[in-house]
Amino acid sequence: MIELKNVTKTYKMGGEIIYALKNVNLKIKEGEFVVIMGPSGSGKSTLLNIIGCLDKPDSGEVYIDKIKINDLNDEELTKIRRNKIGFVFQQFNLIPLLTALENVELPLIFKYRNTLSEEERKKIALKCLKMAELDEKFANHKPNQLSGGQQQRVAIARALANNPPILLCDEPTGSLDSKTGGKIMELLKKLNDSGKTVVVVTHDLAVAKYADRVIYLRDGNIVEE
Ligand code: ADP
Ligand code: ADP
Description:
alpha/beta, EC 3.6.3.28, ABC_transporter-like_ATP-bd, nucleotide-binding, Rossmann fold, globular, binds adenosine-5'-diphosphate, 6 helices
């Protein structure tokens, strides 16, 4: 589902070249649950940005669902992101003025423009909230009327809206207490059992037990699997 071959990514800082990723090789199979760990500065965000088609490597090849993304332009990358990847973040990144349901509808508006009626959109958004196990009674609540765990469920529902095969999660438990974090991980595990490929970047050791595989990064290298 995801493959990186000899991927290198550098940043220039003043006169210095920083290797954020050095010759990284990584294969993630369809339906796998992979956790990526490593100290701050080890290249986790850079790796996530490359897998998420938000950034391209300096050298090496990246394949997402058999599509080589190196040579795609921004418009094509956006399309891959939209169809293949759902993003979940530490800070939920919900739009405060929109309800839970409207937040989940948003990607459907971008993707389908006028081809999906409002009614169809709401139906899909409700189905996604249900998959994220948020009680329907919260559908019309704004984010600030919801707990952290509930907000993360809305964010996960939004990530599911375009029915992507891959979920990329950046510290999904980072703003939650350990009990709530555990529940969110159980939800991600359930979605993985139903067929989603799940990649989680985290500092949280408690997250590792949900993984089929844990990858450790250090100084831009995979040091242990
Ligand atoms: P992590 O997510 O594990 O903390 P990052 O991928 O953010 O690691 O960073 C890897 C390395 O690349 C670090 O040394 C960091 O300082 C550097 N880096 C990341 N982004 C940039 C940037 N935009 N400009 C310069 N250096 C960067
Ligand atoms: P396309 O191939 O046209 O980009 P999809 O294959 O993703 O679209 O979706 C096809 C149809 O499935 C859409 O018209 C929409 O009504 C419906 N659909 C899309 N996402 C979901 C979802 N998460 N849950 C249920 N139905 C969906």
